[in-house]
């Protein structure tokens, strides 16, 4: 989970921004704290803004708005959990008694919650201390997470990592960086090493606290080599660049001169990590092809030079392909169980990103069955067919050689429509209208516009699908038969 402090504002534009998200169905007001009784969830954004302005009058503070966003990876934390985190975060930041709103957003791959308040104390009229605000926010979130999720305490994680067997400082550095920490020399004492997380100091070490291990574990090296050889014949060993240029795009303020971070990835690496805890890290200069690699064996808690196990070019094939880090993380999370689903996902992605297409080896098999997600996805698809609209852009329906698939952008799932809504209902749906075909064989023939392709005449079918499972009639306002047809 991460936090970012957004731009200040004189007019409290964050209130209007979040209200628009709610209006579009992409946001939900989760909390409204410390406002007077006459201002509540029913109040319009202008009333909220006017109140915040009225208590924020100051000659010294030109832009009193406090606006923060707390984000979790994909859907790891629910909107209710994010609400609790936000409330505790505001308490830690010294804003617990300030008026603020917390609005959950569902319009990106990662669940996140926006918080808008004022930096002017509503009681004293003085400015709240905002010195080192960004660093303070990182510490506050960390403290909240430690309190709410004690199993995630960083000290326990650090203790485990420092007990790994490493033979050099560089190996320890790679291990820590792979797990979200940073190792650096202390600015005041060259004999001390600092371990940081999100810029926050976690621990300082002296040289005598490090335990270098130079003993060889030949048996384990042979085991790892055998595993890599075996699975390189099953999963793709084609390696490509993953470029993280978010710092260059100024998503992280104060780092405008930062260079993009480049990693080399392959399906084989992911499977070795997931199945055996074998993590392979490549060494390279800027965008050049790797010249070596390190193996982190999480099973034996050991770190090896790659050359001690297998020659790099005997295992991996390096390509010129590259992908943006953010997009890669999304694609890597997709539930892919067949080669056909890979092809569908690739063509769907390439239609959305024609200037940065991907190859099939850049998609990885990933079995992640979840009955609740499937149930919600089924409901989302049926509602899309029923209404012909998807305000949150959650669903894309694609036609491949006359067969329909649903791609869920938030849940990262690819489903065969007939298996998702049932073969009988699916066939009834197909029989209602001939669907126009697009493109060549063996490729996606079009991202379907349900409002024209399959919507007409499907209301009774969708009602019959929904009623047995959800026990409620669909509201008349969503009935396409009752909408006036536009004159041509």
What are the key terms here?
single chain; 488 residues; alpha+beta; BirA Bifunctional Protein, domain 2; 4 domains; five-stranded antiparallel beta sheet; four-stranded antiparallel beta sheet; 16 helices; 18 strands; disordered C terminus
Could you please describe the fold and organization of this structure?
- The protein has 488 residues and is α+β, with helices and mostly antiparallel strands.
- The chain folds into four domains: 150 residues, BirA Bifunctional Protein, domain 2 (2-Layer Sandwich); 57 residues, no CATH class; 115 residues, no CATH class; 112 residues, no CATH class.
- Helices cover 35% and strands 21% of the residues.
- The chain contains 16 helices and 18 strands.
- The strands form five sheets. Strands 1-3-5-4-2 form a five-stranded antiparallel beta sheet, with helices on both faces. It has a four-stranded antiparallel beta sheet with strand order 17-16-15-18.
- Helix 12 packs antiparallel against helix 16.
- The longest helix has 17 residues.
- The radius of gyration is 26 Å and the shape is flat.
- The relative contact order is 0.07.
- Pfam families: Relaxase.
- InterPro entries: Endonuclease_MobA/VirD2.
- This is Relaxase/mobilization nuclease domain-containing protein.
């Amino acid at each position: 989970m991460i936090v970012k402090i957004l731009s200040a504002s004189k007019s409290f534009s964050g209130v209007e921004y979040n209200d628009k998200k709610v209006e579009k169905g992409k946001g939900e007001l989760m909390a409204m704290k410390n406002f007077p009784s006459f201002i509540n969830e029913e109040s319009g954004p202008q009333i909220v803004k006017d109140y915040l302005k009225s208590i924020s009058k100051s000659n010294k503070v030109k832009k009193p708005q406090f606006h923060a966003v707390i984000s979790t990876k994909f859907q790891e934390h629910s909107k209710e959990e994010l609400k609790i985190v936000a409330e505790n975060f505001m308490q830690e930041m010294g804003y617990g008694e300030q008026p603020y709103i917390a609005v959950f957003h569902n319009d990106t791959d990662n669940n996140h919650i926006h918080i808008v308040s004022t930096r002017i104390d509503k009681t004293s009229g003085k400015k709240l201390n905002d010195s080192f605000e960004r660093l303070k926010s990182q510490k506050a979130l960390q403290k909240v997470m430690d309190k709410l999720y004690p199993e995630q305490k960083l000290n326990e994680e650090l203790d485990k990592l420092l007990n790994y067997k490493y033979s050099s400082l560089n190996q320890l550095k790679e291990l820590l960086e792979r797990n979200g920490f940073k190792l650096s020399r202390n600015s005041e004492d060259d004999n001390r090493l600092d371990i940081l997380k999100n810029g926050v100091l976690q621990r300082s070490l002296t040289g005598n606290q490090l335990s270098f291990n130079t003993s060889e574990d030949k048996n384990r090296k042979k085991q790892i080599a055998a595993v890599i050889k075996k699975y390189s014949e099953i999963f793709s060993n084609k390696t490509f660049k993953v470029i993280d240029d978010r710092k260059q795009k100024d998503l992280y303020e104060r780092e405008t001169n930062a260079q993009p971070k480049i990693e080399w990835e392959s399906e084989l690496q992911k499977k070795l990590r997931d199945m055996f805890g074998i993590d392979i890290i490549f060494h390279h200069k800027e965008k050049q092809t790797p010249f070596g690699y390190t193996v982190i064996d999480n099973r034996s808690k050991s770190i090896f030079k790659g050359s001690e196990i297998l020659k790099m070019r005997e295992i991996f094939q390096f390509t010129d392909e590259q992908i943006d880090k953010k997009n890669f993380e999304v694609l890597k999370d997709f539930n892919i169980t067949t080669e056909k689903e890979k092809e569908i996902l690739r063509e769907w992605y390439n239609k959305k990103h024609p200037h940065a297409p991907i190859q099939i080896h850049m998609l990885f098999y990933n079995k992640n069955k979840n009955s609740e997600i499937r149930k919600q996805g089924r409901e989302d698809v049926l509602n899309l067919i029923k209404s012909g609209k998807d305000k949150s852009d959650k669903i894309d329906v694609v036609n491949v050689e006359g067969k329909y698939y649903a791609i869920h952008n938030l849940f990262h799932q690819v489903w065969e429509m007939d298996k998702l809504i049932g073969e009988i209902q699916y066939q009834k749906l197909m029989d209602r209208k001939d669907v126009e075909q697009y493109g060549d064989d063996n490729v996606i023939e079009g991202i379907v516009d349900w409002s024209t392709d399959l919507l007409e005449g499907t209301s009774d079918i969708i009602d019959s699908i929904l009623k047995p499972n959800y026990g409620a009639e669909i509201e008349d306002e969503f009935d396409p038969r009752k909408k006036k047809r536009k004159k041509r």
